[in-house]
Amino acid sequence: MYGKFLVEGDKLVRELLHSGFKIDAIYSVNDWQMTSHTPDESPDNQLKHVFISENELKKISTHETPNQVVAVVDIPKPKPGAIYTKLNTGLYLACDELNDPGNAGTIIRTAEWFGVDAIFFSENSVDIYNPKVVNAAKGSLFRIPCYYEDLGNIFEANRHLSVYGTFMDGENIYESNLDKNAFVLIGNEANGISHELTPFIHHRISVPAFGKAESLNAGVATGVVLAEFRRR
Amino acid sequence: MYGKFLVEGDKLVRELLHSGFKIDAIYSVNDWQMTSHTPDESPDNQLKHVFISENELKKISTHETPNQVVAVVDIPKPKPGAIYTKLNTGLYLACDELNDPGNAGTIIRTAEWFGVDAIFFSENSVDIYNPKVVNAAKGSLFRIPCYYEDLGNIFEANRHLSVYGTFMDGENIYESNLDKNAFVLIGNEANGISHELTPFIHHRISVPAFGKAESLNAGVATGVVLAEFRRR
User: Fold this and answer.
1) Does A224 lie at the interface with B, CB-CB under 8 angstroms?
2) Which residues pair with A195 in a beta bridge?
3) pLDDT, tens digit, for every residue of A126-181?
4) ipTM of the complex model
5) pLDDT at A31 (0 to 100)
6) Category of B138 on φ-ψ map: left (φ > 0), alpha (ψ -120 to 50) or beta
């Protein structure tokens, strides 16, 4: 399914229907349409909706116990003349070589919670249209703009935004000045932020440790940092 | 393997060797001992260490690409005349019917980062000796005391500690008084905190939302709340 991804389950497909994503087709068991899918929920009357058996659903689903419905959706194409050449003021997240699909989903969900304006993933990050990411993101993937881009180019093109890199040995975030208009840059789970991005970083920040744990999970670290940006 | 659990991979087994956990046996490829395992790393000279082939390792490992070594470890038995009857002052985490192994592991790791003194899981929570939890906890499981207990009994027996329940509609945590000596109570991923625990809760707190995401991941919420307790 080149250029497509799957959205699975009643709740997630309903959230999808309210998004701007282009749906290729919906495959559901008979009950789904009958009991809860009302026509006005669909933003597009041309929507292809195919009824299938529980067994057929099991075959196309990536879940062990599929939940009524699967949608096939177009992966959004990057726009020519990229929109990021000049970003508005706001809070943005940048993920450098993020590897784990569960982390990516959690980060997308967390970013939406804290009102992040958009997320930029380096081109060597995990595929965010992977079913594990889609599930862990809990619908936030449909609402928060996500882009794959060269992070250095983005920082370069948006000098009006400060870049805060998260490190193990940075300045204590609770003692740092945090600009409202900023990029929060998260590194790879094992190796942190790549050296090529160092020249773009204005502030090196850390979440202080109170115990002996070696590191924080990438999703948790993102949450704690974004919470602090928003608390101020 | 009744009463035992598995610890896998070079890094995690080394952290295990420095813990007080009782190791039943270590199974490793020849190289592991030869290149990096020095005898003084083992706290117990009686340790049973068996060399096996890569193929045998693959059979006992739960990983797709096992990493040199697997340890079989005794699950700690609860002590008779439980130690929690009167806890010291400190910060404690209580998890009510936590379901997801990845969340449990992340929460254990996060709790250690923020210097939580012990974690109490309700008896219907996920098995923390499940390989997914052990891996996600990244060694913190060996260093932070974890107990399965009736949470109501614990709160009842420790009236000197305030109970902070995390809710979707609680008081903004950034506007709440936070006691240094407290339980932070995290609810089930889908259903929140069970009604039976309501009478024990002194403060209902929330992490304020800035976007439209429906909820925070349990691990991220735990991290943001514990960070705020420690920041003060």
Assistant:
1) yes
2) none
3) 999 999 999 999 999 999 999 999 999 999 999 999 999 999 999 999 999 999 99
4) 0.87
5) 81
6) left
Closest by Cα among A32, A131, A227 to B206: A227
| Segments of chain B assigned to CATH 3.40.1280.10 | 83-231
Write out pLDDT tens, residues B26-39: 999 988 874 444 54
Is the CB of A168 inside 8 Å of chain B's CB atoms? no
Show the CA angle centred on residue B159, arms to residues B157 and B164, nearest 5°.
Answer: 110
Give the class (CATH, top level) of A83-231: alpha beta
B14 touches chain A (CB under 8 A): no
A133 inside 8 A of chain B by CB: no
Closest CA to A100 of A198, A10, A186, A195: A186
On the CB side of B16, how many CA atoms lie within 13 Å of its CA?
27
The C-alpha atoms of residue A208 and residue B84 are separated, in whole angstroms, by: 28
Read off the pLDDT band of A81 (50, 70, 90). low
Specify the 3-state DSSP secondary structure of B116. coil
CATH architecture for segment(s) A4-74: 2-Layer Sandwich (3.30)
Taking the CA of residue B90 and the nearest CA in chain A, the distance in Å comes to 13
Interchain CB distance below 8 Å, B109 and A217: yes
On whether the CB atoms of residues A221 and A174 are closer than 8 A, the answer is: no
Q: Please, are residues B93 and B186 in contact by the beta-carbon 8 Å criterion?
A: yes
pTM, two decimals, is 0.89
Where are the domain boundaries for CATH 3.30.1330.30 in chain A? Answer: 4-74
